[in-house]
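User: I'm writing a short report section on ligand binding and want a predicted complex to refer to. Could you take this sequence and glutamine and write out the structure as tokens? A short remark afterwards would be nice.
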Amino acid sequence: MSDVTATDITASTAAELSRALQSGEVGSVEVTQAYLDRIAAQDGTIGAYLHVDADAALAAAGAVDAARARGEELGPLAGVPLALKDVVVTEGVPTTSGSKILAGWRPPYDATLAARLKAAGTVLLGKTNMDEFAMGSSTENSAYQVTRNPWDTDRIPGGSSGGSSAAVAAGLAPWAIGTDTGGSIRQPAAVTGLVGHKPTYGSVSRYGLIAFSSSLDQAGPMTRTVLDAALLHEAIAGHDPLDSTSIDSPVPVLAEAARRGAGGDLSGLKVGVVTELGGEGHADGYDPGVLARFAETVALLESLGAEVRQVSCPAFDLALPAYYLIAPSEASSNLARFDGVRYGVRVGDDGGRDLDEVMALTREQGFGPEVKRRIILGTYALSSGYYEAYYGQAQKVRTLITRDFTTAWDDVDVLVSPTSPTVAWSIGARVDDPVAMYAADLCTLPASLAGVPAISVPCGLSDGLPVGFQVMAPALADDRCYRVAAALEAAQDAARGHTFLAGMENPHS
Ligand code: GLN
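Assistant: Sure. The structure tokens for the complex follow:
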């Protein structure tokens, strides 16, 4: 063993771990053990993981070390541990989507992204907590446990990928996969001081992601640095014949964009500040500290050579009501498959009840309140007589939002906004107020509805809590998000040192 300490390991970026593993400075078993030890010590407080299999992780790590010792040609990610949101189907490993209805389910196959990460030699540490079926912004809708924000354990870690954000921010995984339907990668990344990217819709396979809203769901990276996000994104991207909406285009070149961006020169880049997302006349509901960090970051972009202008996207004001009709409508249909017959839990099958009663009992006891609310809402919005008034109307708004983006791209290369209107709130503060919970998605929903890529990059603190800056780009121009985010990250690091881990020093900064 070298002189690398366990703290060095758990405070490293994934890119640093990849380098150290390739040079033989550390082995994957040593790296994996350092994470497992930290999980054992801290996850009782944080609650990031629903499932950790230490033996399986160490066995996978041992296999990578043995292959490396034999001189086998391995990819750059071989031996690097990671965590997956529990919405990602994993062969033989419990997968619940945060719901009681899937308690005890061990899938017979891997999601495409899980299979790709396995083939790349990454080591699965465990599955992370989430809002049930990815519905929520705080991870409090999980049927299993509360997850705490490592920056302040009385606060939420964001959602729905809050287990993944808390794990990475607390140093319980070097990086993690989240999924984003209306903001669930970007918002938890923002409120825990991480980088989170929602890829262009269709560029990462949805095969094996438990569906919430199929026309919106995308998986993506949640990491400590922009380069790490690009590396993880490249590993999961690319065409998949098993997903009918998968785009058949080459895997985007993202790590290169991140490295180029870190050079810091943004001259010639045209940036649009979205008026409707926290701008003049639209600042209600935003923390003053969030708006202050946002304004400073826009000024930083200008100092790096970008040309900044205001851009109005009027239909963005309607993103929230449109999303909360479209997403529940699709969810009400997707969740029909959970009937107690095919997967997971079955309730009341005692020989005395007919099939309908067993299904009703299973769904009554298997689903939590937010999921039921959305099934009712979605079923109502799709029912005959109301379909045009609600679902049809929402789809028209979706088209208008896409048009606002298309018009904006005539004038600017990227659009920017805060990621979340507020910093992480106190646990419990919004659980009984769904509308306040939904308001957390204000800034992230437009990119979701239009299917365009968007990244959240840390941009400082407000009241000691992380604030995120969102960069949106045209479809398939994910590399622009990485370039701009990397430039900001480098400029901020230079200005004040890296602050990516809650309560941990980065020994490499
Ligand atoms: N907070 C949003 C919702 O509850 C987004 C969730 C998500 O992106 N999965 O639907």
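A remark for your report: The CA atoms of residues 416 and 471 lie 5 Å apart. Residues 505-509 have pLDDT under 50 and may be disordered.
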